[in-house]
Write a structure and sequence with these properties.
By secondary structure, the chain is mainly beta. Helices cover 14% and strands 51% of the residues. The chain contains three helices and 14 strands. It has a twelve-stranded antiparallel β-barrel. The protein has a two-stranded antiparallel ribbon with strand order 8-9. The chain is elongated and about 75 Å long.
């Protein structure tokens, strides 16, 4: 009996020792969600990129506005040069043979443009639409110089899928432009402009925790800032007719800068302060177009080349995670276009044009522009 009790005591001691040394197994790890713009939402914030939209879209917006839309004032002086080459410029008797006494008519014009563009970089895709409305007036001074001014409004609506948010930007712009008709073939034009812009943006809080803060994954983070933009452009144009065929060409350059104020986001623990951002773009371009005059209408095709000679993406201001580069390193593209010009009676004219950008890595752009000119 004593042996049985001893054995039982020994077994109990071993069991107690085993229980005392046991540890609770660790909980299974939480599933890791890959950054995936297609899944990014307030329900799956871990799929979102913890980056601010302006750090991705600003330079592309600058390129589209200035190259595709904002330099429209300079382009309209080229249309006046084409009218001059045909001897149908308002206020002129017959092209370059007009005397100074026949010059003096003002022309009012309006231009409306829609640009749709998108970035397809895998980690930070976005889509954007820019609407641009310009109103202007110009006149000839003497028989070779045309000068005028513009007033404009622009709005850019961007969906930044990579962070579940977007941007809404709008502003007013003013500009001056002039063109000098060298002869019946060549002209040179220049334009300068300034815009004051306001941007509101939002994104999803991915749950990033700052010291002393509580994570708020899925919350909406908001921010807003003002910006100033200025640009200058100069172009050499040529227009030559061969019977009903009209051959045109242009070479030029532009420089655009944008300064965005610093701001602090609100709405979640992942909100951050973004420093003042400076964007800078210098671009050269060349294009040719071939049209066929059929009565008052002139359909045409065009092909252009653009090269970014220099640019500053503004990444030094922050707003993107370390090591994330969303702007492709390529620096040039081509633009193909179709359009039609109209030269009506009493100097009324207009144009409708579609341009398609191709050849730039992970970036697509379409621009449709309509312009009407009326002398008075």
């Amino acid at each position: 009996m004593r042996h049985l009790i001893t054995a039982a005591a020994f077994l109990c001691a071993v069991a107690a020792s085993h229980v005392a040394g046991a540890t609770t197994p660790p909980p299974p790890p939480e599933p890791v969600v890959e950054r995936n713009p297609d899944l990014c939402s307030s329900e799956i914030p871990g799929a979102c990129l913890d980056g601010v939209g302006g750090g991705v879209t600003s330079l592309d917006s600058l390129r589209v506005n200035r190259s595709g839309l904002g330099s429209r004032a300079a382009a309209t002086s080229e249309e006046r040069a084409q009218q001059q080459a045909r001897g149908v410029a308002p206020g002129l008797v017959s092209g370059m043979s007009a005397s100074a006494g026949s010059v003096g008519a003002w022309t009012l014009w309006g231009s409306g443009s829609l640009a749709s563009y998108e970035g397809e970089v895998a980690i930070a895709p976005y889509e954007a639409d820019t609407y641009n409305i310009l109103l202007g007036a110009d006149r000839f001074f003497g028989d070779r110089l045309v000068a005028g001014f513009t007033l404009g409004y622009e709005n850019t609506d961007t969906e930044t899928r990579f962070n579940g948010g977007g941007q809404d930007r709008d502003g007013l712009q003013v500009g001056l432009y002039a063109a000098y008709l060298i002869d019946d073939v060549f002209s040179i034009d220049a334009a300068v402009g300034y815009a004051a812009l306001d941007t509101d943006e939002n994104r999803i809080d991915t749950g990033a925790i700052r010291v002393g803060a509580v994570a708020t994954p899925g919350a909406t983070i908001r921010g807003s800032y003002d910006a100033d933009r200025a640009f200058a452009t100069v172009n050499l144009n040529a227009v030559k007719t061969f019977g009903n065929w009209v051959l045109g060409g242009r070479v030029g350059a532009l420089h655009a800068v944008e300064s965005q104020d610093r701001y602090t986001e609100t709405g979640g623990a992942g909100a951050r302060s973004i420093g003042k951002r400076h964007l800078d773009l210098t671009q050269a371009y060349a294009s040719v177009d071939l049209g066929y005059a059929a009565g008052a209408f002139e359909p045409y095709v065009s092909l252009g080349y653009r090269n970014d000679l220099g640019r500053d993406d503004g990444n030094s201001a922050g707003g993107l995670p370390a090591g994330i580069r969303t702007t492709p390193s390529d620096d040039d593209d081509w633009q193909g276009g179709l359009g039609v010009r109209y030269f009506g009676g009493s100097g009324v004219s207009g144009s409708l044009e579609w341009l398609r950008t191709f050849g730039r890595d992970k970036f697509d752009e379409d621009v449709v522009t309509a312009t009407v000119r009326v002398p008075f």
